Each structure stands twice: as C-alpha cells, then as structure tokens.
C-alpha cells in the first residue's frame, strides 16, 4: 500500500513538473521544473530497486546536464530572444500534432493491453546485484569502448572551451 502511494506521488510529481516545463514562459522556471521531473523519475527508479539508474539519473541528468542547461540559459542574451519573432501563429499545427500523438498513444495502449502475457516476476532474493554486475562488465569486457568514449568527451570539452574563447 505504501509502495503504491510513493509511486503515485512520484508519478504525479513527474507529470505535473513535465507539464509545467512546457507551459512556463520563464526559462529559468522551466529548467527548475525539469530538474523536479528528473528527480521524480529518479525516485521511481529507486523505488523499483534500480539503484544504478537512480544514481545515473541524479548525477548525470539532474546534476550535469541541468547545470549545462542553466549555463546556456545564463549565457544567452534573453532580451534579444524575447524581441525576436515568435511562432504563435502556428498553434493549429501544434494542436494537430497533439491530436495525432494522442491517437497514437490511445492505439498503443489499447493494443498493449491484449499484448504479450507476462510471467511471474522473480523473487528479489534471486536477482543479482545490478550495480556490481554493471561495474564488472563495464571495466572488464567493455574497458576499451569506455576509455574511447571518455577520450571523445574530453576532446569535445576542450573543443567547446576553445570555440567559446573570445578573441583578445
């Protein structure tokens, strides 16, 4: 009973925050609501005993990516962007796309209810520890791709610093 209440709390928080992300006119408020939605999703992951996904969600998305978003928001000159032409005249296209996506979602849910039969879930005592298993596989079998990805990210970061550096 408590698990359901916690799930519905995090789910409602995620949905409300996601709606507020796209309806707020202030960019900083949208970023804060996006952080709230990401943290609510992390709470759902923690409740499902997916500790690795919880940590990745908090550190990578709610931490790193959102810090990057906030820096971009701070670097963009908002006065200029507020005076540029807006796309308010295309509301009918947005409404049409919303209706099409809503119909697709309705069809997917209707087909999914009569879809694949699921077996009984495995008891928690038989499950392997996910974080330890991911760490072992990541640093044994996938060591070379992991290091190549880290070098690519380092090169991209250095390139962004060089490109963002102003000429003196």
Describe the structure concisely.
This protein has seven helices and no strands.
Protein model, in words:
With 168 residues, this protein is mostly helical. It has two domains: 1-79, NADH-ubiquinone/plastoquinone oxidoreductase chain 6, subunit NuoJ (Four Helix Bundle (Hemerythrin (Met), subunit A)); 129-168. It is 77% helix and 0% strand. The protein has seven helices and no strands. The chain has helices at 2-23, 27-47, 51-75, 78-83, 91-113, 130-140, 143-164. Helix 1 (2-23) runs antiparallel to helix 2 (27-47) and helix 2 (27-47) runs antiparallel to helix 3. It is extended and about 60 Å long. The mean pLDDT is 83.
Task: Write the topology of this structure.
Layout: H1 2-23, H2 27-47, H3 51-75, H4 78-83, H5 91-113, H6 130-140, H7 143-164
Arithmetic mean of pLDDT: 83
Described by strand count, sense and barrel closure, the largest sheet is: none
The CATH topology of the largest domain, please? Answer: Four Helix Bundle (Hemerythrin (Met), subunit A)
| Strand element count | 0
What is the number of helices?
7
Unreliably modeled segments = none
Please tell me how large the radius of gyration is: 21 Å
């Amino acid at each position: 009973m408590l698990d359901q209440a916690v799930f519905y709390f995090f789910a409602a928080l995620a949905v409300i925050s996601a709606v507020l992300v796209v309806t707020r006119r202030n960019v900083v408020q949208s970023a804060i609501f996006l952080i709230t939605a990401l943290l609510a999703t992390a709470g759902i992951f923690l409740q499902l005993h997916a500790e690795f996904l919880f940590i990745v969600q908090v550190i990578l998305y709610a931490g790193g990516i959102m810090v990057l978003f906030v820096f971009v928001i701070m670097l963009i000159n908002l006065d200029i962007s507020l005076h540029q032409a807006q796309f308010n005249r295309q509301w009918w296209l947005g409404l049409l796309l919303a209706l099409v996506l809503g119909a697709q979602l309705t069809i997917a849910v209707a087909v999914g209810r009569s879809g694949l039969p699921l077996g009984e879930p495995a008891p928690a005592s038989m499950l392997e520890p996910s974080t330890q298993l991911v760490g072992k596989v990541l640093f044994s079998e996938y060591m070379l791709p992991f290091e190549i990805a880290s070098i690519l990210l380092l090169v991209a970061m250095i390139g962004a610093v060089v490109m963002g550096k102003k000429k003196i």
